[in-house]
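Hello forum,

I keep getting stuck at the same step: I have a sequence, I want structure tokens, and every attempt I make locally crashes halfway through. Rather than fight my setup again tonight, could one of you with a working pipeline run this one for me? It's a single chain of 239 residues.
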Amino acid sequence: MLTRKQHELLLFINERLGQGGVSPSFDEMKDALGLKSKSGIHRLITGLEERGFIRRLPHRARALEVLRLPEGLEASRGRSSAAAAARGKFQPNVIKGDFSLTGREVAAVPVTETVQLPMYGRIAAGTPIEALHDNSAFVDIPATMLTAGEHYALEVAGDSMIEAGILDHDTVIIQRCDAADNGAIVVALVDNGEVTLKRLRRKNNTVALEPANAAYETRIFAADRVRVQGKLVGLVRKY
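Reply #2:
Ran it on my machine without issues. Output:
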């Protein structure tokens, strides 16, 4: 079952695609649904994707496609009145022309929006992630870099992960979680004090935090001394 906002957004996207084959921007979605930030739109899109109503096409850069609508609603491209009623305040302009599609009911179009993530600062020994949080610092990240769930950004300090392509001053995108598969690169909190970005290896009741630099040694801890605070899902580098 969809939430009210997910339902409204799905109708809005389907309507705009049906009118002219052009997806609304994240700003237009935000305004149509009366949200304050584009991050809320990203969460709604992720929820719709997980439920099988829309998808991002991997073979087309940043493309959205509506796969289906809720039961009882006709999958039509021209139902502006239904979407307008759902939104209660937005009436888009109609683009006239022949936009008929063959073999599909909806069109896939590029989405080039960004999402603002909180920048928690640099990973520094002796500082838990919670203490790094700065409510005034944000970074713009392409929405397609993100997966489901909550994310934050960190600036990398040091060269311990250079053989994994992670350099000093890079910005890493972290999905918040408390567990990760063996071999994943994670943000790990050791002894409730030290935070580090390393590759995770578990064996029996021990946890190894493995660097990607031959100059550094792998550190091994009892499992109860290490707490995963997120896993790496993306990286941004400035030149």
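The longest strand covers residues 226-236. If your local run keeps crashing, start a new thread with the error log.
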